[in-house]
């Protein structure tokens, strides 16, 4: 819901400041919407990569701790 409000605000601002009132056509609005979707998609992809990297690191730390407890790296 918040994302839609932000999108609407950005779209309104860019449309109102870029061209005079009444001169906005549907293809222009569609181009702006496509650009916004691309930006949102890139943000979602970055979030997924960040979460996966964090989970991978967490799993590897746990594995290392287990191996250390079993003395794989020498006496503790």
Task: Describe this entry's structure for a reader.
- By secondary structure, this protein is mainly alpha-helical.
- The chain has a domain of 45 residues.
- The chain has two helices and no strands.
- The longest helix has 44 residues.
- The radius of gyration is 24 Å and the shape is rod-shaped.
- It starts with a helix and ends in a 7-residue tail after the last helix.
- The mean pLDDT is 80.
Question: What attributes characterize this protein structure?
Answer:
2 helices, 76 residues, mainly alpha, rod-shaped
Please specify the SSE layout and strand pairing.
Elements lengths: L1 H17 L7 H44 L7
Task: Please provide a brief summary of the model.
The protein is mainly alpha-helical. It has two helices and no strands. The longest helix is centred in the middle third of the chain and has 44 residues, at 26-69.
Helix content: over 70%
Strand content: under 5%
Largest sheet: none
Label the structural class: mainly alpha
SS summary, helix count: 2
Q: What is the N-to-C order of secondary-structure elements (H for helix, E for strand)?
A: HH
* Count of individual beta strands: 0
Global shape: rod-shaped
Q: Rg, please? A: 24 Å
The oligomeric state is: single chain
Distance between the first and last residues' Cα: 53 Å
* Overall average pLDDT: 80
């Amino acid at each position: 819901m918040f994302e839609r409000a932000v999108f609407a605000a950005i779209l309104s601002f860019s449309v109102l400041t870029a061209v005079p009132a009444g001169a906005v056509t549907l293809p222009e609005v569609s181009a702006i919407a496509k650009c916004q979707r691309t930006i949102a998609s890139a943000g979602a992809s970055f979030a997924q990569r960040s979460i996966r990297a964090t989970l991978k690191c967490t799993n590897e730390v746990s594995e290392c701790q287990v191996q250390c407890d079993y003395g794989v790296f020498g006496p503790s």
